[in-house]
Amino acid sequence: MxxxxxxxxxxxxxxxSAENAVVAVYDQLxxxxxxxxxxxxxxxxxxxxxxxxxxxxxxxxxxxxQAQDRxxxxxxxxxxxxxxxxxxxMEANVQKDVQRLAPxxxxxxxxxxxxxxxxQRLYGGDGQ
Length: 128
Description:
Largest sheet: none
CATH topology: Four Helix Bundle (Hemerythrin (Met), subunit A)
Structural class: mainly alpha
CATH superfamily: Flagellar protein FliS
CATH architecture: Up-down Bundle
CATH class: Mainly Alpha
Radius of gyration: 17 Å
Strand content: under 5%
Number of helices: 5
Number of strands: 0
Number of domains: 1
Shape: globular
């Protein structure tokens, strides 16, 4: 019995919960946009392009999933924010304009922090 309990605890630490997975997705989005920002500034346009396109794809998937689920009252507003971020990333990519990335980073960081706080309050977890 002890062995099963140990395995469960190990598995629970290694496999993120759904709440922590959402925080991890936003963490990755923030990191990808920061990488793209630095790449544009350094003239590494292909690297910037790859990171921005990948981020756009993730934002599209998040928006689509949220639009289908609509599990909370603010779902439509969240979808609008996600689509705004995606559009700004598209424009930043086309124009190679780092100025367009600052508001996106602000929104994504705020969303990540909100999901982290919600996870901590609801589940007492660390969101990691």
